[in-house]
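User: Can you help me understand a structure? I only have the sequence.
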Amino acid sequence: MSKSEWLSIAKGAGIAIAGALLAFAGDVLIPAMHASGSATLLTVAVIASVLVNVARKYLAGGNDE
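Assistant: Let's start by predicting it. Here is the structure, written out as tokens:
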């Protein structure tokens, strides 16, 4: 495999790991957010999701709409 193929695999793995971590954190944090009623926790969750999507778009070259 070429270097660019390995790089593509690594980027995809990074995005998958980030998504899995967000899903795990969401499973743990959503009950805590609901119980606390804190808008700050909800804001952190939203920002984290947006940042993962921005990273995905950046790594994909911004061409997948």
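Now, to help you interpret it: Residues 3-36 form the longest helix (34 residues). Helices lie at 3-36, 39-60. Let me know which part you'd like to focus on.
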